[in-house]
Amino acid sequence: ARKVLSEGGEELLNSADPQGAPVLRMEISKFLHDFRGINAHPDQIVVGAGSEYLLGLLIQILGRKRTYGVENPGYPKNSRIYQGNDVKIVPVPLDDQGLSAKELQKSEAEIVHITPSHQFPLGMVMPVSRRVALLRWAREKDGRYILEDDYDSEFRFAGRPIPALQGLDPEKVIYTNSFTRSLAPSLRISYLVLPPRLLEVYREKYLFYSCPVPGFDQHTLYRFMSGGHFERHLNRMRNAYKERRDQLVSAVMKSRLGKSVEVIGSDAGLHFLLKVNNGMNEERLVATAKAAGVRVYGVTEYCVQKNGKCPRSTVVMGYSGFPSKDISPAVRRLEEAWGD
Fold first, then answer.
1. Does one domain contain both 56 and 138?
2. 209 and 83, same structural domain?
3. Greater confidence, 268 or 330?
4. Is there a single domain that holds both residue 166 and residue 86?
């Protein structure tokens, strides 16, 4: 940051490029190529202040008269953003491979918003065969698109990373990601990779929007990435989160709960599911954990219109902000809350 202030000069004071600083977009392009298998020209990248802003912009580019499919269960804020922009959404059920291609085919959806790298909240990683099936759906009609939300793809702990869906069809997939999870929640920098046809629409109709991310923040992130610091940071955080996940899973399985719980979706991302077979329903599990001072979330909280197919007696456990020293005490509290 000091280097940006001392060397930035007039560049920090001038109006920013509407799509984001060219040097930052170049670094994002390199990162996507090297780590996600995406060949995106910097001109295809649009930088924005958080995924909420970019999703609102994308709705304008695609059109409010379209029908948008969302995962059910899925991230509830996305559905609220779509509804807040007066667009029609259709919840699409999941199966054990992610969003159901058969159910999507039966729906009215023209654009579908998915989290294939680590579905939220159920945690599955979408296999290549399902990705191909969804691309087949998108190619069947002009105007269909897949929005690939790659929100925590940087954190995969088992097996080789699956390349981004966008790399399989750059014409039909809109890619979005954020630095919120990989760096800090307060760093409101996200980005889109637009297919060529949508890029034309954006530049023709919406280029008048100023980039909402301060130039200082963009140039600081550019320096951080170009100096190799971001890659090293990801490696450190990946190891730290894996260690924290292993510690949490081990503490649960070695506790009295071990014989009555099942850990689901822990190979990637910063949360996993805990299916608890102790006779309690989801509402009771959440309430007793809260009374014991531990916050967990019921899977049904993420169902759109409360009609998604969710596993029973299952809670979401996030651990990214969980200090290691608090893991064992928290598990002991859950033992008391959920034990015999």
1. yes
2. yes
3. 330
4. yes
| DSSP 8-class letter at 270 | S
Identify the pLDDT of residue 6: 54
Q: Tell me the C-alpha distance between 294 and 287, whole Å.
A: 10
CA gap 163, 177 in Å, rounded: 14
Look at residue 256 and give its three-state secondary structure.
coil
Cα–Cα distances in angstroms (integers) from residue 166 to residues 1, 284, 285, 310, in the given order: 33, 41, 39, 28
**Can you tell me the distance from the alpha carbon of 318 to that of 274, in angstroms, rounded to the nearest whole number?**
10
- φ, ψ of residue 91 to 5 degrees: the values are -70, 130
pLDDT tier at 319 (50, 70, 90 boundaries)? confident
Q: Which residues of 89-108 are buried (b: 16+ CB within 10 A; e: fewer)?
A: bbbbbbeebbbbbebbeebe
- CATH number for the domain spanning 185: value is 3.40.640.10
The total number of structural domains in the chain stands at 2
Report whether pLDDT(292) > 90. Answer: yes
Indicate if 178 and 307 belong to the same structural domain.
no
Q: Looking up tokens 């329903």, which residue turns up?
A: 281
For residue 306, give the CATH number of its domain: 3.90.1150.10
* Alpha-helical runs (H) found in the chain: 2-7, 22-36, 51-62, 76-84, 101-106, 128-140, 196-205, 215-226, 229-254, 282-291, 327-338
**Domain shared by 114 and 188, yes or no:** yes
CB atoms within 10 A of CB 187: 18
Domain that holds residue 329: 231-338
Residue with tokens 């034309």: 200
CA dihedral 122, 125, 130, 135 (to 10 degrees): 100
| Whole-Å CA distances, 340 to 256, 257, 282, 293 | 9, 9, 16, 18
pLDDT above 70 coverage of the chain, percent: 92
Q: Answer with the residue of higher pLDDT: 73 or 163.
A: 73
pLDDT-based confidence at residue 250 (cuts at 50, 70, 90) = very high
CA distance 261 to 263: 7
Q: Name which residue leads in pLDDT, 336 or 266.
A: 336
